[in-house]
Design a protein that fits this description.
Phage tail protein beta-alpha-beta fold, 18-stranded mixed sheet, three-stranded mixed sheet, 8 helices, 21% helix, 34% strand, globular
């Protein structure tokens, strides 16, 4: 096999288009990467030492080894995706469908609660809501069949938008700020921002693209902290059942405040607030906002952390049948794969198994 054929094989596996025979051949070539400096078995794989050296350099220069990996991104991340899979010498792609556990992924769905208490189920056929000058429209310009129920000059009237488990939605606030809500999340906001400040409250997870206004700071309150910005792009993970609040900055500058402590965050960094302290670290911001880009991405996460995300997006209940280890998994799959694809990928690592009955997922390790 020459270099071009090998790269073609890598691409087919990464795109999920490889046959069982091609996957087996792929495994044979790349099991050699389980440990550094392991030579190829040239009797079975051919004498292409140059291919080995070049691809090995590519792999180890782009990613760091992880214990276990599940399928990573598809196009346009072909080579990087393959590299992540290859580091541990395991191919974990599946093309078949398991009818036992066919649970569909989440969708665009949310409820808007007006200041007068009226609840409006937002259209599943739309992806976003725009609030402007007392009007409600979807992001395509079509009208929502309700009025805000507040006067335009009432700055204290509070509204909220909430997504259920298995739901996501985008909202454009009156100042032009865009907010994307992940599953099982809630955003509270005023019908009209004051001229002095813009304040919203978040539970769950949201991605913010804040409209710039130097005279009016934008603040996000969560269960444990306050975030202040003037105009920027950032993600906040503040679910009640997580041990910390994570704020990840993509663009601009934010200040994270909790318990009398202020931390400034630069692009490419994440603040982790455990309630006792706020730590700052450089991270892969693409992983933090993968949910917004319709991906599940796991970076050194244990099975309980992964299954909490599965619970929210697929609206299932997770039950652990025995003690689970802290072993970590890294990789990713599309958020629009059905549940069976995610579970089969995890099962293929050999360290976890699942049984599904209705909407209950039983986990054992």
């Amino acid at each position: 096999m020459n270099k071009e054929e090998l790269l073609e094989l890598v691409t087919k596996v990464s795109d999920g288009e490889a046959t069982e025979q091609e996957i087996a051949l792929f495994n044979k070539y790349y099991n050699a990467y389980q440990k550094d400096n392991v030579a190829w078995d040239t009797s079975e794989m051919g004498p292409e030492q140059k291919v080995h050296d070049e691809l090995k350099h590519m792999i180890f220069s782009q990613v760091r080894p992880q214990k276990k990996v599940i399928p990573f991104w598809r196009k346009p991340y072909r080579i990087v995706a393959a590299a992540v899979i290859l580091v541990v010498g395991s191919v974990l792609l599946f093309n078949s469908t398991d009818d036992r556990i066919y649970v569909e992924a989440g969708k665009n769905t949310a409820t808007l609660t007006l200041a007068n208490g009226k609840a409006i189920a937002l259209s599943d056929a739309k992806s976003g809501l725009v609030i402007d000058a007392g009007k409600l429209t979807y992001d395509d310009g079509s009208s929502v069949s309700a009025a805000l129920g507040v006067h335009n000059d009432n700055e204290n009237a509070m509204l909220s938008i909430s997504t259920p488990k298995g739901g996501t939605y985008e909202i454009v606030l009156t100042d032009g700020t865009h907010v994307w809500l992940n599953a099982d999340s809630k955003l509270e906001f005023p019908a009209k921002f004051s001229s002095a400040r813009r304040l919203v409250k978040l539970s769950g997870e949201g991605y913010f693209e804040v409209a710039k206004n130097k005279q009016s700071p934008f603040r996000v309150l969560t269960k444990a902290q306050e975030i202040e910005v003037l105009g920027t792009h950032f993600n906040v993970d503040a679910y009640d059942n997580e041990k910390s609040v994570k704020t990840t900055l993509l663009e601009g500058l934010v200040k994270v405040s909790a318990n009398g402590v202020d931390k400034l965050l630069d692009p490419g960094f994440q603040a982790v607030n455990t309630g006792e302290r706020i730590s700052i670290a450089k991270v892969d911001v693409n992983a933090a906002v993968a949910w917004k880009n319709k991906q599940f991405v796991f970076e050194s996460e244990n099975i309980k952390s992964i299954m909490r995300k599965v619970e929210r997006w697929y609206n299932v209940e997770v039950v652990y049948t025995d003690d689970v280890s802290e072993e970590t998994f890294s990789g990713g799959v599309s958020r629009f794969d059905n549940l069976s694809e995610v579970l089969k990928s995890l099962e293929s690592t050999g360290n976890v198994s699942f049984k599904v009955k209705g909407r209950i997922v039983y986990v054992s390790m």
